[in-house]
From TrEMBL, chain A:
Function: Required for the assembly of the mitochondrial membrane respiratory chain NADH dehydrogenase (Complex I). Involved in mid-late stages of complex I assembly.
GO function terms (MF aspect): oxidoreductase activity
Domain of life: Eukaryota
Taxonomic path: Eukaryota, Metazoa, Chordata, Cephalochordata, Leptocardii
One GO CC term on file: mitochondrion
Domain FAD dependent oxidoreductase: residue ranges: 55-449
Transmembrane segments: 54-73
Keywords, comma-separated and alphabetical: Membrane, Oxidoreductase, Transmembrane, Transmembrane helix
Gene (name only): FOXRED1
Taxonomic source organism: Branchiostoma lanceolatum (Common lancelet)
Coiled coil: none
This protein's name: FAD-dependent oxidoreductase domain-containing protein 1
Length: 480, 452
C-alpha cells in the first residue's frame, strides 16, 4: 500500500507532472514562434478556413454577392457543377450583417426610372420575386417567400417637373412597365388623404412595384446557392495579390489578380486563396477592395493610365424613420415620393408608416457610424410629411435606423462590368440606393459576363467602368 | 545502373538541403545531368549491371526508363509557375516528391527481380498521392486521390500474393532466370496469372477498372498529370509484359476476356471523348483508349504485339504529357478548362498552336508519327488473334481521329473569346517544354530500331 502510494506520488504526481508542464510550455513556445499563415498549421485547424484554390471568389456576401453566386451555379448544367471549373467562394466579413446595406434597406422595388437599363432590370427582378418559388426553392425545405407587397410607387411632380415625369412615363410604358399617369383631380379622387397643393401630375405603378423583405431575399438566395454547391466563409479580404507579366503590347504589363488573402475573424490566421476570377460586391466598401490593387492611385511608371480612375463608391448614411399615425392614410397608401425627395409608405397593418429622405449635399451625415439623427426627422422630414398628408401632423415616432448607400459619387448608377486593366476582376458596385431591386438582374448579368463573355439577356455595357475613363456619366433622373 | 538510382537519392537530399533560390535549379539541372548515365543504357542488349546484381535492362525497359528520366526535368519546368507563391518547405516537398517518384520508376523499370519491381511499383503510389491531394486544383482532388489509391491497392494485393506463390512454386523471382514459364498444365495456373495481372490492368487502365483515371488526371497538378499519363500508366504495361512471360502461354487462358474488354474500351473511350467538356478530361479519357490498345497488344502473346505495345507506350507518354502541358498553359492564363470557354486560341497564341497541332495529329496516329507504327503493329497482332477484332479497332481508330480533331478544332479555331484581354505571352519556358516533348517524338520516327 505504502509502496503504491509512494509510487503514485513520485511518478505520477512528480515526474509526469513535470513532464506535462514542460511539454505544455514547449508546445506554447512552438506555437508562438511559428508565424501563422498558410505555410504552417498552428496545430489547430480553423474549420472556417477556405481552401487554397477557387475558380471564382466573390468578395462580399450581400444580396449582390449571393445573387451572382446563385446565377453562376444556375447557368451551369447540374452534372457539371463544381467539375468544369466552377468552384465559387463567397467571402463575407460579417455574417450577422449588422452594417450591410442589404438588410438595412427599405426593400422597395419600382420600375419608374428614366434609363431603359434600370427599368428592364427592375422588371426582371419583380418577375423573379413573383416567381421566387420556381427559382429559389430548395428540396425538402419550405418554399421561400419575401413578403412582396405590390402596392406601387406614386411619384408626384410639380408643374416644373411634370414634363420630365411625363417623358419618364413614356419611356417606362414603351418598355412594358405598368405605370399610369394621374392628373391632380384623379389623385384627389384615388387618394383623398393626400394634399395635392402644388402637385400637377402623378405617376403610379399599377403592378410589379412595391416593397418586400430584403433579409428574406438574401437568405433565400443564400440557401439556394449553398444547395447548388457554392462555398462560403466568414473572413475579411485584406489584400489582393497581382502578378504582372509582359504581354503583347510593348511596354505594358499584363496584370492579373492571382490570390486573395482572406483573414480569419479574431485571428491573425489567413489563407492565400488562389482565385481565377474575382467579383467585387463589397457594397459601400468597394473602394477599399479596389484600392488594394492600385485602382485610383497614380501609377508611378505612368504606363497604366487607366489605373488613375478610382472606383467612385463611398458609403453614405441614410436614415429611415418609423412612426405611428392612427388616423393615417390606411391600407391603400403606396410608396409616395414627394417632389422634394421625401418618401413615405405604409409599414404593416397597424397604422405604422416608414419614411425617409436623401439629405442634400451640404447636410450629408457622418458615415463613420450608424447613429440616427433625430433632428433631421424633426426639422426636415416631418414638416414635409405634415404638408403632404394632413393626418401626419399628429404622429408618434416609433423607431429609426440608419444604413449605408453604396453611393456612386459620379452618377449614382450601377457599375457593372470588368476592369480595363485587370480583366479577371468583375465589378458590381455603386447602386446608390436602388441595389436591392436590381439584385437578381445584376447577378444574372455578371454571371453571363463571366461565363459567356458578354451580356446575353440585358445589355448593360453602358454601366461599365469605361464610362469613368471616357468621362461619360449616365445620369438617372428619378433618384430617391 | 544502380548508380542511376543513387543519383536520384542524392538529388532528393540535394533538394532538401539547398537554399531557397537553388531548390528548383538543383532539381532541374540535376535531373538533366542524370540523363547522361541513361545514355549508357541505349544499347538494346540485355545487360546485367556490373554495379549491382539487382538491375538489368533490356529493350523493354530501356525505352520506358529513358522516358521517365526524360520527363522529370519537363515536370519541374512545367510546374515552376504555379509553385512560385508556395512556402519553401512545400516547394522542397514538391520537388522532392517528383524526384523520388522518378527514382522509384527507374528502379521499377530496371529491376531484375519481380519483388523489387513490386516494391518500386508500390512506392510510386505515395508521392503521386501526395501530388494529387495536396497540389491539385479543385476540392474534388480528395476523392480523386482516394479513388486512385484504393483502385491501385486493391489491384496490387493479389499481385503480391501471386508473386509469393510463384516464388514458392519456382524458387526464384529473378527475371533473367524465368523465361521458361511455370511448367504446369492444369487450368488453375490461370488464376495465378490473373491475380498477378490485375494490378497492372488497374494501372493501365483496362476499360472496366478505369474509373480512377479521369478523376486523378483532371484533379492532379500539371506535374502529376504529366507523370501519371507519361509513365505511371506504362508501369502497368511493362508489368504485364514481364509477368506474362513468366507464367507462360498456358496461364493466359482468360486473356480473351480482357482482350474483349480492351477492344470494347477503345471504341467506348472514343465516344466518351467526343462528349467531354473539360479539356483535361478529354485527354485523360484518350489515355484510357490508347492504353486499351496496349493491353490488346500485350495479351496476344506474340512478339509483334509486344513490340507494338512498347512503341505505343513510349509514343503515348510523350504525346499525352505534351497535351497536358498545353492544356495547363491555357489554364494558367484563363483559369478555365472548359472547352467552350477556350476557343479560337490560334488567334491569340499562334506559335503554341503549332504544338497543339502536331500533338493532336500524333494523338490520332497520323503517319509518320511513331503512334501510327505502334498502333499498326499491335493491330496486326490482334487481327492475327481474331479477324473480327478489325471491326472494333477500325471503329476505334476513326473515333480517335474524330476526337483528336475535335480537341484541336474546339480549342484553336472558332470565335475567339472576348472576355480575355490581358493574356500574357507564351514564355520561352513553355516553348522549351513543348519543344522538349516534340523533339524526341520526331526523332523517334527515324529510329526504327526501337521496334525491329
Amino acid at each position: 500500500m505504502n509502496a503504491i502510494r509512494t509510487f503514485r506520488r513520485t511518478f505520477v504526481g512528480g515526474y509526469m507532472k513535470i513532464f506535462d508542464e514542460g511539454w505544455g510550455k514547449a508546445k506554447q513556445r512552438m506555437k508562438t514562434a511559428i508565424k501563422p499563415g498558410p505555410g504552417f498549421d498552428v496545430g489547430w485547424n480553423n474549420p472556417n478556413m477556405p481552401l487554397n484554390n477557387y475558380d471564382i471568389v466573390i468578395i462580399g456576401g450581400g444580396v449582390m454577392g449571393w445573387s451572382t453566386a446563385y446565377w453562376l451555379m444556375h447557368k451551369v448544367p447540374r452534372k457539371a457543377r463544381g467539375k468544369i471549373g466552377l468552384n465559387v467562394l463567397v467571402v463575407e466579413k460579417d455574417p450577422s450583417y449588422t452594417r450591410a446595406s442589404t438588410v438595412l434597406s427599405v426593400g422597395s422595388i419600382r420600375q419608374q426610372f428614366t434609363l431603359p437599363e434600370n427599368i428592364n432590370m427592375s422588371m426582371f427582378s419583380s418577375h423573379f420575386i413573383r416567381n421566387i418559388r420556381e427559382y429559389l426553392s430548395v428540396y425538402e425545405d419550405d418554399p421561400p417567400d419575401v413578403q412582396f407587397n405590390p402596392q406601387g410607387y406614386l411619384f408626384l411632380a410639380t408643374a416644373e417637373g411634370a414634363e420630365q415625369l411625363k417623358q419618364a412615363h413614356d419611356t417606362q410604358v414603351a418598355l412594358g412597365a405598368k405605370v399610369r399617369l394621374f392628373t391632380k383631380r384623379q389623385i384627389e379622387v384615388k387618394f383623398p388623404w393626400l394634399n395635392t397643393d402644388g402637385i400637377e401630375l402623378g405617376n403610379y405603378g399599377m403592378e410589379n412595384e412595391g416593397w418586400f423583405d430584403p433579409w428574406l431575399l438574401l437568405m433565400a438566395l443564400k440557401k439556394k446557392a449553398i444547395s447548388l454547391g457554392v462555398n462560403h466563409c466568414h473572413g475579411e479580404v485584406t489584400d489582393l495579390v497581382v502578378e504582372a507579366k509582359p504581354g503583347v503590347v510593348e511596354g505594358r504589363l499584363c496584370k492579373r489578380i492571382t490570390h486573395v488573402k482572406v483573414k480569419m475573424p479574431n485571428s491573425i490566421q489567413y489563407q492565400n486563396v488562389k482565385a481565377g476570377h474575382i467579383i467585387n460586391t463589397a457594397g459601400p466598401w468597394a473602394q477599399d477592395i479596389a484600392k488594394m490593387i492600385g485602382i485610383g492611385q497614380e501609377d508611378p511608371m505612368g504606363l497604366d493610365w487607366e489605373l488613375q480612375a478610382p472606383l467612385p463608391v463611398e458609403p453614405r448614411k441614410r436614415f429611415v424613420y418609423v412612426f405611428h399615425c392612427p388616423q393615417g392614410p390606411g391600407l391603400d397608401c403606396p410608396m409616395v415620393v414627394d417632389p422634394s425627395g421625401m418618401y413615405f409608405r405604409r409599414e404593416g397593418l397597424a397604422g405604422n408608416y416608414l419614411c425617409g429622405k436623401s439629405p442634400e449635399e451640404h447636410e450629408e451625415p457622418d458615415a463613420k457610424h450608424l447613429e440616427v439623427d433625430y433632428d433631421f426627422f424633426n426639422e426636415t422630414i416631418w414638416p414635409k410629411l405634415a404638408n403632404r398628408v394632413q393626418a401626419f401632423e399628429e404622429i408618434k415616432l416609433r423607431m429609426a435606423w440608419a444604413g449605408y448607400y453604396d453611393y456612386n459619387t459620379v452618377d449614382q448608377n450601377a457599375i457593372i462590368g470588368t476592369h480595363p486593366i485587370y480583366d479577371n476582376l468583375y465589378l458590381a458596385n455603386g447602386f446608390s440606393g436602388h441595389g436591392i431591386q436590381q439584385a437578381p438582374a445584376v447577378g444574372r448579368a455578371v454571371a453571363e459576363l463571366l461565363l459567356d463573355g458578354e451580356f446575353k439577356t440585358l445589355d448593360l455595357t453602358r454601366f461599365g467602368f469605361e464610362r469613368f475613363l471616357r468621362n461619360e456619366p449616365i445620369r438617372e433622373k428619378n433618384i430617391v | 545502373m544502380n548508380h542511376l538510382v543513387l543519383g536520384y537519392v542524392g538529388l532528393v537530399i540535394g533538394v532538401i538541403v539547398t537554399k531557397k533560390s537553388m531548390v528548383w535549379r538543383v532539381g532541374q539541372v540535376g535531373s538533366v545531368l542524370l540523363m547522361l548515365p541513361a545514355t549508357v543504357l541505349v544499347n538494346m542488349n540485355m545487360t546485367i549491371s556490373n554495379v549491382s546484381y539487382m538491375m538489368t535492362s533490356d529493350f523493354v525497359s530501356l525505352g520506358l526508363t529513358v522516358l521517365s528520366i526524360w520527363l522529370l526535368p519537363l515536370m519541374l519546368l512545367a510546374s515552376q509557375q504555379h509553385m512560385v507563391s508556395e512556402s519553401l518547405i512545400y516547394q522542397r516537398v514538391f520537388v522532392g516528391c517528383q524526384v523520388f517518384l522518378t527514382g522509384a520508376l527507374v528502379l521499377a523499370f530496371m529491376a531484375s527481380d519481380l519483388l523489387l519491381f513490386y516494391i518500386a511499383f508500390e512506392s510510386t503510389l505515395l508521392p503521386t498521392l501526395m501530388l494529387i491531394t495536396r497540389w491539385g486544383a479543385q476540392k474534388e482532388r480528395y476523392q480523386a486521390g482516394t479513388y486512385f489509391m484504393f483502385f491501385t491497392l486493391v489491384g496490387s494485393l493479389p499481385l503480391l500474393i501471386c508473386l509469393i506463390g510463384q516464388y514458392q512454386m519456382v524458387g526464384s523471382l529473378a527475371l533473367d532466370l524465368s523465361y521458361e514459364g511455370v511448367f504446369q498444365l492444369s487450368y488453375l495456373v490461370n488464376f495465378w496469372w490473373v491475380g498477378c495481372i490485375l494490378a497492372f490492368l488497374v494501372k493501365l487502365p483496362l476499360y472496366g477498372v478505369h474509373l480512377w483515371l479521369p478523376k486523378a488526371h483532371v484533379e492532379a497538378p500539371i506535374a502529376g498529370s504529366m507523370v501519371l499519363a507519361g509513365v505511371l500508366l506504362k508501369l502497368g504495361g511493362y508489368g504485364m509484359m514481364r509477368v506474362s512471360l513468366m507464367w507462360g502461354a498456358t496461364a493466359m487462358l482468360s486473356s480473351e476476356v480482357f482482350l474483349a474488354l480492351a477492344l470494347w474500351g477503345i471504341v467506348v473511350m472514343g465516344g466518351i471523348c467526343l462528349r467531354q467538356t473539360d479539356l483535361k478530361s478529354l485527354i485523360a479519357y484518350s489515355s484510357v483508349g490508347h492504353m486499351a490498345l496496349v493491353v490488346g497488344g500485350v495479351l496476344t502473346g506474340v512478339a509483334w504485339g509486344y513490340n507494338g505495345a512498347m512503341v505505343l507506350m513510349i509514343a503515348h507518354g510523350l504525346v499525352s504529357s505534351c497535351l497536358f502541358c498545353l492544356a495547363n498553359l491555357w489554364y494558367e492564363r484563363s483559369s478555365t478548362r472548359n472547352l467552350s470557354g477556350s476557343r479560337g486560341l490560334i488567334m491569340i497564341f499562334p506559335l503554341i498552336s503549332l504544338g497543339w497541332f502536331l500533338m493532336s495529329l500524333m494523338n490520332m496516329a497520323l503517319p509518320p508519327a511513331i503512334n501510327l507504327f505502334g498502333e499498326l503493329v499491335a493491330m496486326v497482332a490482334l487481327y492475327n488473334w481474331s479477324p473480327y477484332s478489325i471491326v472494333y479497332m477500325s471503329l476505334g481508330a476513326v473515333l480517335t481521329a474524330a476526337y483528336s480533331l475535335y480537341l484541336f478544332g474546339m480549342s484553336q479555331w472558332g470565335n475567339t473569346m472576348k472576355n480575355y484581354k490581358n493574356l500574357y505571352t507564351i514564355t520561352s519556358r513553355e516553348y522549351l517544354l513543348t519543344t522538349l516533348h516534340l523533339v524526341p517524338a520526331i526523332y523517334l520516327i527515324f529510329y526504327l530500331g526501337l521496334m525491329f
